[in-house]
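I'll show one example:
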Amino acid sequence: MPDFVGSTLKENVAIVSINRPDLHNAFNEVVIEELTSAFEELGKDKDVRVIVLRGEGKSFCAGADVNWMSKMVGYSLDENVADASAMARMLRTIRDCPKPTIARVHGAAIGGGVGLTAACDIAVALTSAMFCLSEVKLGIIPAVISPFVMEKIGPGHMRRYALTAERFGAAEAKRIGLVHDVVQTEEELDEHIDSIARTLIANGPAALAAAKRTLTDVAGMQWDAIQKLTTRRVAEIRVSPEGQEGLKAFLEKREPKWPNS
């Protein structure tokens, strides 16, 4: 049984919860391993159509656990590389998960908590949520999370907040692209996320996975390579069972019956 990360499934929506409320859901090596495993398993589960990531208690995720950080002080270079690689793998597993992912952000999202927010496809936050790339205050850097956060907020905003370690609120997080929507209350937060999940579930599951994979693949590619990749991908999805059902349902003016859903 997992120690700190649990998941529940209701109506094709998996809720993944970090459950260390006394430590504001801070990371340690166990949390990292359990989050990685949870997203790997749910990504393969045909009953799962959407995954929501949340934190129990007062915060979403307050970054690294102090006790875990104290162990790092004595790590060798190779041990630090292995440790950082495990976190990078966790974030990649979330970002590359074939199922759409939604971050439910409340309270504090600090350091790695910002990385978790950015790794999800969609993020919704309470107006009271607070964000911070705090690493330089500790004499370290937000290196592992940087590609995930910069993908969302761009290099200009990343430079500011990675260098200043300023705290910023949900309105600023939305302005710079870290979160997509901001709501006032926890009830509204859950209702809004449920609405997004229902919208996603109405779409073809294989198409969603292919869209995510394609958006990842085309980033940074040359245009000739992009054209070759994307024309092949859309042709493959059109002739697939799901693509055929979706097109026929549209033409026949009916709701699609997605295969394997």
Notes: The longest strand covers residues 5-10. The chain has two domains: 5-201, 205-251.
